[in-house]
Design goal:
Among the domains are: 141 residues, YVTN repeat-like/Quinoprotein amine dehydrogenase (Methylamine Dehydrogenase, Chain H); 112 residues, no CATH class; 92 residues, no CATH class. Strand 20 and strand 21 form a beta hairpin. The radius of gyration is 28 Å and the shape is elongated. Helices cover 18% and strands 32% of the residues. The strands form nine sheets. A five-stranded antiparallel β-sheet has the order 1-2-3-4-5, with no helix packed on it. It has ten helices and 36 strands. The longest helix has 20 residues.
Length: 596
């Protein structure tokens, strides 16, 4: 599974057409619990089946609920005239174990792992709340503008949809990581996450766009009926689409559409549908729902939609051939049928979103960092040449002092891969690309003020950010430039100061270590260290450059002969192993021994 931290699905709220009560159905990230809410009454049920094990009465009707974890916990965001707060309930008995006040009313917009993303009523303030055992912690996040919506991703990351940009933020450090170049359908729209994908749709539209996060490629699906709601789970590759003519399952990897045979009835007369949720336990995925007349605490029904107990999907050609609409509008069409029809109807229909159709359902757009780094959907053979040409053109404009837009640089290029592996911040990535652009046009240095103006911020230009910490740049006389080891790597030139030995790196703890030679020759020492550490970079010349080159190539630096002094500068997270003997200098002999 792609999750390091499973994310709880945000259950949607629905107004019960009979009594006006809010209904909500939630499942826990670990697939252990199901929560059903009607009005203020909340029941916690075991996912394996059985009677409720915990109940709680909410303090207000105006409450957002979410199941977070691990460990699984129920969190309520309460809005009252005199008491806006977050409450934490602990399974299985739903004891209220913690509370935290909020300065203003906020609504729950996303969940990632044990963290909730709260948005103020004016959509300008974002707060990250973490459920940690029996406590709650909060920290602000400055999005830089009004937030339209948000969606939780894996690894404690959250996608923020702003007016003119899409950004992925780290919910732990409250820092932006990536700027995505996904052309979503115009607002109003709904956006969510599935396993390895994002999805988007518009109210009343019969189209669903699925964006593959690995390369940013979007896929357009015509469902054949207006999509009212999308039932998703970040650990599931399936989307269940609620339409007036029934439920449709969309597989984000296979890009297939099939009717779901479930005891769910489309609402009539303006009423809202009963809530649904996906229950994910490993590879087994079930659709969970409640009967409209069921009491709070009644066991939900469930239908397997993926895994060992799921029914075999019909062939694509006849998957929905017999499925007639509940409203008498005729049969739903399969994805293949719709795609074939799309080609014939495109001239008259036109795209529903500002994107041009391509072969089948695929549209070759890049997942980029608009003004930074990203993934491009261009063919790999042309990309290695094209990305440098675009960067060089930007460098020429920058050297002339002309303001221009930094081009998108794919993650699978030398520059993009390094920035991703080192975990550089957004400003650091832009500064790295800008300085390499200047190198390509023969103007490698740039004044601090000019770089700050190009980046729109001063941290990296002043040497207070990631580039200096990783020793990627040199600063002299108020000007910055990339170090030669960095430009050589981006140019595709081999390293000059190291000799790489071994396979994948299994680096020791960050820092400097010593290994006693004990009469062994260089070849024997190299073999032993390569066996223990994987990829090693043996210093051939200039220890400081060798240490940086080893960090750039993801290897542990090895000095067969101890340098006169510790290499300087020292890149962040670098590792150095010094082979010592009786003639080694005092600083090397004082290093801690490398654990075997």
């Amino acid at each position: 599974m792609w999750f390091d931290e499973h994310e709880a699905r945000l259950g949607r709220s629905a107004a019960d057409g009979r009594c006006g009560l809010i209904e909500q159905l939630l499942t826990s990230p670990d697939g252990q619990w199901i929560v059903y809410r009607r009005g203020r009454d909340v029941a916690l049920l075991p996912a394996a089946g059985g009677a409720p094990v915990g109940r709680v009465q909410l303090p207000s009707d105006d409450v957002d609920l979410a199941l977070v974890g691990p460990p699984a916990a129920l969190v309520a965001v309460v809005r009252e005239p005199d008491a806006n707060r977050v409450l934490l309930y602990q399974p299985p008995y739903l004891d209220a174990v913690a509370g935290r006040p909020l300065e203003a009313p906020m609504r729950l917009v996303a969940v990632t792992g044990p963290r909730l993303v709260l948005l103020s009523s004016d959509s300008t303030k974002v707060t990250i709340v973490r459920a940690a055992g029996r406590a709650l912690a909060a920290q602000p996040l400055d999005p830089g503008g009004p937030v339209e919506t948000a969606s939780g991703l894996d690894r404690n990351q959250v996608l923020l949809v702003l007016a003119k940009k899409l950004e992925v933020w780290d919910a732990v450090s409250s820092r932006p990581l990536l700027r995505l170049q996904l052309q979503l359908p115009p607002a109003p729209r709904s956006v969510g996450a599935a396993q390895g994908h994002l999805w988007a749709t518009r109210p009343g539209s019969d189209e669903v766009f699925v964006y593959r996060l690995s390369d940013g490629r979007p896929f357009r699906h015509y469902v054949g009926a207006a999509v009212r709601e999308v039932v998703c789970h970040p650990a599931s590759p399936l989307l269940v689409l609620e339409t007036p003519r029934g439920l449709v399952r969309l597989h984000c990897f296979a890009h297939s559409l099939h009717v779901v045979d479930a005891p769910w009835v489309p609402p009539t007369g303006g009423a809202e549908a009963s809530p649904l949720a996906q229950l994910v336990i490993g590879e087994d995925v079930s659709l969970v729902g409640v009967d409209p007349d069921a009491e709070v605490g009644a066991e939900p029904w469930r239908v397997a939609i993926a895994g060992a107990h799921a029914p075999a999907a019909p062939a694509e050609g006849d998957a929905l051939a017999d499925g007639t609409a509940a409203g008498g509008e005729g049969p739903l069409a399969t994805a293949a049928d719709k795609l074939r029809a799309m080609r014939g109807e495109q001239a008259s229909r036109g795209p529903a979103a500002p994107v041009a159709p391509a072969r089948e359902a695929e549209i070759g757009m890049g997942l980029g960092l608009g003004g930074g780094l990203g993934r491009s959907a261009a063919p790999s053979g042309a990309r290695s040449k094209a990305w440098r040409e675009a960067v060089a053109a930007y460098g020429a404009e920058l050297a002339r002092g002309v303001e221009s837009e930094l081009p998108i640089i794919a993650v699978d290029t030398e520059l993009g891969e390094l920035a991703h592996r080192l975990g550089l911040s957004g400003p650091a990535r832009r500064a790295l690309a800008a300085l390499y652009a200047l190198h390509l046009v023969g103007e490698p240095e740039l004044a601090i003020a000019r770089l700050a103006r190009a980046l729109g911020e001063w941290t990296e230009a002043l040497g207070q950010g990631d580039l200096v910490a990783h020793a990627l740049v040199r600063r002299k006389h108020g000007r910055l430039a990339l170090r030669g080891a960095v430009t050589d790597m981006f140019d595709g030139a081999p390293p000059r100061a190291i000799r790489i030995v071994g396979g994948a790196s299994v680096a020791p703890a960050v820092g400097a270590w010593q290994v006693a030679r004990t009469g062994r020759g260089d070849a024997a020492v190299e073999t032993a260290l390569a066996t223990q550490l994987g990829r090693i970079a043996v210093i051939a010349r200039t220890p400081a450059r060798a240490l940086l080159e080893a960090r750039l190539y993801g290897a542990t630096t090895v000095a067969l002969t101890a340098p006169a002094a510790l290499p300087d500068p020292w890149p962040r997270d670098a590792a150095l192993v010094v082979v010592t003997d009786a003639a080694s200098p005092a600083w090397a002999s004082a290093l801690p021994p490398l654990a075997s």
